Amino acid sequence: MKQVMLEKPVKRGYKIWARSDASSGYLYQFEVYTGEKDDGAILEELGYRVITNITNDLHPTSPLLVLFDKVFTSVLLVETLFSKTYTPLVPSELVKNSFHNKKK
Fold it and tell me: Residue 52: what pLDDT?
């Protein structure tokens, strides 16, 4: 079940996707990553699939803030979260780098 991550300092380990409360740290849901699914999905869709699965059972009565790393970021994901009245928040360095790369 351990994942082999050749580009990381620690080569073997576990990947766990988690949804928790930012203020209390309470863990609501988690999923152990066991590798690629056999459904033919490409790696770029991994972030979209993880975030939508983890937020799928949320039914907020007010707007909800969803924080995630640059690994998960895609235009489709941001559009999907906005359509569900979630507010996606990505690291600012990602936004800066994306903007500067488009200007060149």
Answer: 86
Please enumerate in sequence order all residues whose Cβ is within 8 A of that of 31, keeping only pairs 6 or more positions apart, or say none: 16, 17, 18, 50, 53, 54
Question: What is the DSSP secondary structure assignment for residue 61, as one 8-state letter?
Answer: S
Say what the pTM is.
0.64
Length of the chain as a residue count: 104
Long-range contacts of 70-76, Cβ-Cβ distance < 8 Å, separation of 24 or more: 70/94, 71/47, 72/47, 72/48, 73/47, 74/44, 74/47, 74/48, 76/48
Is residue 100 classed as helix, strand or coil in its secondary structure?
A: helix
pLDDT, averaged per 10 consecutive residues of the chain (104 residues), comes to 67 80 87 70 73 83 77 82 82 55 50
Q: What is the CA radius of gyration of the chain?
A: 15
